[in-house]
Amino acid sequence: MNVRKFYSFVIAAAALRGQPLTLSQTVDAALRNYPSIQVSQAEIDAAAAGIRIARTAYLPRIDTLAQINRATRNNVFGMLLPQSVIPSMSGPVIGSNNLGSAWGSAIGGLVTWEPFDFGQRAANVAAAAAQQSRQQAALKRTQFEIAASAAGAYLTLAAAQETVRAAQAGVDQADTTVRLVTAQVRAELRPGADQSRAAAEAAAARTQLAQAQQAVESARAALARFTATDPAALAIAAPGLLRTPPGETPPPADPAANPLAAEQNAAIEAARAELHALERSYFPRFYLQGAAYARGTGAEVSGVNLGGVNGLAPNTQNYGLGLTVTFPVTDKFALREREAQQSALVRAEQARARQIAVDLKAQWNEAVAALHGARAVAANVPAELTAARDALRQATARYQSGLGNLEEVAEAQRLVTQSEIDDALARLNIWRSLLAIATAAGDIRPFVAEVER
Fold first, then answer.
1. Where residue 5 falls among pLDDT bands split at 50, 70, 90?
2. Is this prediction's pTM over 0.70?
3. How far is CA 150 from CA 104, 105, 231, 239, 339, in A?
4. β partners of residue 62
5. What is the spatial distance between Cα 21 and Cα 163, in angstroms, rounded to a whole number?
6. What is the pLDDT of residues 231-274, one digit of tens each?
């Protein structure tokens, strides 16, 4: 069983034993199980292989050849332009067109080594290393996004569960009102229409509860996607989310510390490394070469065919050492345009980095504004809830004494339910704003620690 399956089994077993997941357990499960993280890890492995491939350019190249053939031996005087169709032929021109064939053989080896390259191979290795760094930064960004998304799904489930709790309280209150109205109708103190109206309000409260329960199931399914567990067996334990978090506002974050910005900086460095490799391309190439080979032929220089198996074994040897210099003169024009193209890509990546910094700063500012608003709402909700409950008690008392009508009670009851939902969500909205701030800052670990403190 691999690590991923084992961890999934542990999480599922904990859920089935009735042990709810904490926020940190949920984040850890997401980091271990979510497929996109494995994708990023595989891309890092591919980039590491790219570095090893680039380093092989420092090794000498060794080519070997072995061949036998049966062919005619007619050779003609004259030049043949470089091509890949007509086989090459060596030997003197015999002055006849003899279609008789003879055996031929060859075996040999060629060693080629580039002693210096004006920094091109080093630039290619550096470009491959920059790509690996970019993939590593992408992995960290993916891990951060998955962790933040899992934490957000966790808060969503907690909010949905609190909404169910408030909706259930509304159903209980509606049932109490039904019993009150039923007693009043039976005593002939109220018309029978009031009983129907109370039953309708109770049914509406149950509909609201069913919708809240549906939201819980949807939130549980969304969270299960990160933990790789059965949604039906998934439960959370987040008592810290029910308290009001500390009142201080986190200090402004450095956008460069965000994994998204770090990945973009790595992309800039990778583009620069590619440009540097192009800049080291337009230089002469020097190759030290050594060759040794042997050939055999079943024909004499005079044109006599030796017959039999003559020529199947190489019997004439040669060797040689030399220095070859190549310089692709006309590549300058295409290379110049490729450098211009790569320079434009570098500028584009730099502009994208500036845009990311602006977006992260705006995201942080928006999260701070949302935090201030959530704190203001949370400070006001207790008074709203107290007033709503007082209004319900007064409306119920007025109804019982015959001074009020059922509409007043129903309206007060709906106001209490909404106030309880607002009260349940007020603190969670503060936590959600703090998560948004941590996401913009690029580090949710302090947020997770504060929730579980």
1. very low
2. yes
3. 71, 69, 14, 18, 43
4. 111
5. 20
6. 888 888 878 888 888 777 777 778 888 999 999 999 999 999 99
> Is it the case that residue 345 has pLDDT exceeding 90?
yes
Helix axes 23-33, 120-186, angle to 10 degrees: 130
User: How far is Cα 26 from Cα 21, in angstroms, rounded to an integer?
Assistant: 6
Structural contact between residues 275 and 336, judged by C-beta atoms closer than 8 angstroms: no
Nearest-5° Cα angle at 254, 150 to 447: 35
Amino acid at 347: R
Q: SS3 letters for the chain?
A: CCHHHHHHHHHHHHHHCCCCECHHHHHHHHHHHCHHHHHHHHHHHHHHHHHHHHHHHHCCEEEEEEEEEEEECCCCCCCCCCCCCCCCCCCCCCCCCCCCEEEEEEEEEEEEECCCCCCHHHHHHHHHHHHHHHHHHHHHHHHHHHHHHHHHHHHHHHHHHHHHHHHHHHHHHHHHHHHHHHHHHHCCCCCHHHHHHHHHHHHHHHHHHHHHHHHHHHHHHHHHHHHCCCHHHCCECCHHHHCCCCCCCCCCCCHHHCHHHHHHHHHHHHHHHHHHHHHCCCCCEEEEEEEEEEEEECECCCCCECCCCCCCCCCEEEEEEEEEEECCCCHHHHHHHHHHHHHHHHHHHHHHHHHHHHHHHHHHHHHHHHHHHHHHHHHHHHHHHHHHHHHHHHHHHHHHHCCCCHHHHHHHHHHHHHHHHHHHHHHHHHHHHHHHHHHHHCCCHHHHHHHCC
pLDDT digits (tens, 9 = 90+) for 108-128: 999 999 988 888 889 989 999
- Span of 48-57, 256-265, 342-351 with lowest mean pLDDT: 48-57
Position with higher pLDDT, 303 vs 313:
313
With a cut of 70, say whether residue 194 has pLDDT above it: yes
**Dihedral sign (CA 156, 158, 160, 166):** negative
Higher per-residue confidence, 410 vs 154: 154
Please calculate the CA angle 249-253-256 and round it to the nearest 5 degrees. 170
Maximum mean pLDDT: which of 129-138, 226-235, 298-307, 420-429: 129-138
Give yes or no for residue 8 having a pLDDT over 60. no
Strand partners, 326: 285
Distances (CA, A) of 436 to 31, 423, 447: 19, 21, 10
Distance CA 176, CA 309 (A): 112
